[in-house]
Design brief:
alpha/beta, Rossmann fold, N-(1-d-carboxylethyl)-l-norvaline Dehydrogenase, domain 2, 3 domains, 16 helices, 38% helix
Length: 448
């Protein structure tokens, strides 16, 4: 529980007292805006500890599903949604209902535009939709990953356009999401949460907002520090993945199995953290977040060479994989054009249905452009979903000895546990393994 520090005559601290009390005694109503991979688990956690939650989303299909107690995310069971509805959870597309809640937690996408620049349209449009219904005592928390300064430069002026003063009438924080979909070892409750406020009073309200639902809330000095923290986390991963992807290319040229090297290096008990190569970066964070910082850094006259180099290496991996496919098929007197290629796994990582920025889809596009006949198998994604930038009228192919043998190439893009890798190895004419699944060499296996 957050203990309210009181100083005589300090209006900023006194002004958030009622909000903090309502958050601490769980009589506050929580509004979660954006009911996707971040917002939905957060909603369930608030319901679990006893808050009433109102969810907002612009997708009527999602809202209707939730009202019926149905989940549209594989690792979130419908039973959990149904229990939340019975506990008082409601979902709506009507942003005018924002006046019913005490807290508004914004969990909307922050993609890149076609020029690889930050696209804040979802954040800005969402905020603009909520602003007319703000009232004294509201707290607004932005969880969407973004560049340092977004909360202060974009959200604060919009909130104060109502005549309400941030830090006195309404409270504004940035608290970056840290969800890892499908990871059973870390859930919303147990993942430490960083929180930065626009003012000290905002931070205190933000700590109260999350203190009841997260085991450890980590305060930082400002929203900018919180925004930079999230970028550092993901840039750290992007850079290290870029390094190991480059090492993979070098090792391949030298006839060395990079996965064997990583396994050996990982036996060192200090000074080494294993990262693993793949066909490219996926998910909403790692392929995108570094470019938010490189874009903002230019405002300060800085050129982020290290980050951009890692991005260049990672973004080039799908092309490199396709070149390996072309070489492997050429060795077998086959061309990509006209050949049947089965892509195994189109989610961005193993054992989830999350398609955001999946490198598998880029591989499918590149192979289609070269004339391949594309099919895919992914039990987590039975029908290829509607996507803003990609279109395939396909559904998942079942794997049998006959179906596997009917393809000229099987591209192992995402290593779901559900696949029978022994069966695939036994019946596939050619396997291009981008995930290091097959430890032993074989005539029909090519590492990429």
């Amino acid at each position: 529980m957050v203990i309210l520090r009181q100083f005589p005559g300090n209006k900023r601290i006194r002004s958030n007292r009622r909000l903090i009390e309502r958050l601490n005694n769980k009589t506050a109503v929580i509004g979660v805006v954006g009911l996707g991979y971040v917002g939905l688990p957060l909603m369930l956690r608030y319901v679990e500890v006893g808050y009433r939650v109102l969810g907002f989303d612009i997708d009527q299909i999602k809202v209707d599903s939730l009202k019926q107690g149905k989940s549209y995310i594989e690792h979130i069971p419908s039973a959990a949604i149904a229990h939340a509805v019975k506990s008082g959870f409601d979902a709506t597309t009507d942003f005018a209902r924002a006046g019913e809640v005490d807290a508004l937690i914004i969990c909307v996408p922050t993609p890149l535009n076609k020029y690889r620049e930050p696209d804040l349209s979802f954040v800005v449009d969402t905020t603009d939709s909520l602003v007319p219904y703000l009232r004294k005592g509201h707290i607004v928390s932005l969880e969407s990953t973004t560049y340092p300064g977004t909360t202060d430069e974009e959200l604060k002026p919009r909130l104060e356009s109502t005549g309400l003063k941030v830090g006195e009438d309404v409270f504004l924080v940035f608290s970056p999401e840290r969800e890892d979909p499908g990871n059973p070892d870390f859930v919303t409750k147990t993942i430490p949460k960083v929180c930065g406020g626009t003012t000290p009073a905002c931070l205190e309200a933000g700590m109260a907002l999350y203190d009841q639902v997260i085991d450890q809330v980590v305060p930082v000095s400002s929203t900018r520090a919180a925004e930079m923290t999230k970028l550092l986390e993901n840039i750290h991963r992007a850079v290290n993945i870029g390094l190991v992807n480059e090492m993979k290319i070098i090792a391949d040229r030298m006839g060395i199995d990079i996965h064997e090297v990583i396994r050996a290096a990982a036996t060192k008990p200090f000074g080494f953290v294993p990262y693993y190569p793949g066909p490219g970066l996926g998910g909403h964070c790692i392929p995108i977040d570094p470019f938010y910082l490189t874009w903002k850094a230019r405002e300060y006259g800085l050129h982020t060479r290290f980050i951009e180099l890692a991005g260049e290496v990672n973004s080039g991996m799908p092309e490199w994989v396709v070149s390996k496919i072309a070489d492997a098929m050429n060795d077998r007197c086959k061309a990509i054009k006209g050949s049947k290629v089965l892509v195994l796994g189109i989610a961005y990582k193993k054992n989830v249905d999350d398609m955001r920025e999946s490198p598998s889809v880029e591989l499918m596009e590149l192979l289609r452009e070269k004339g391949a006949v594309i099919a895919y198998s992914d039990p987590h994604v039975p029908i290829f979903p509607k996507m803003r930038e990609h279109s395939f009228d396909l559904s998942s192919v079942g794997l049998t000895p006959e179906s596997i043998a009917s393809y000229d190439c099987v591209l192992l893009a995402t290593n779901h546990n559900v696949f029978d890798y022994d069966q695939i190895k036994q019946h596939a004419k050619l396997i291009v393994d981008t995930r290091g699944v097959y430890l032993q060499p074989a005539d029909n296996i090519v590492k990429a």
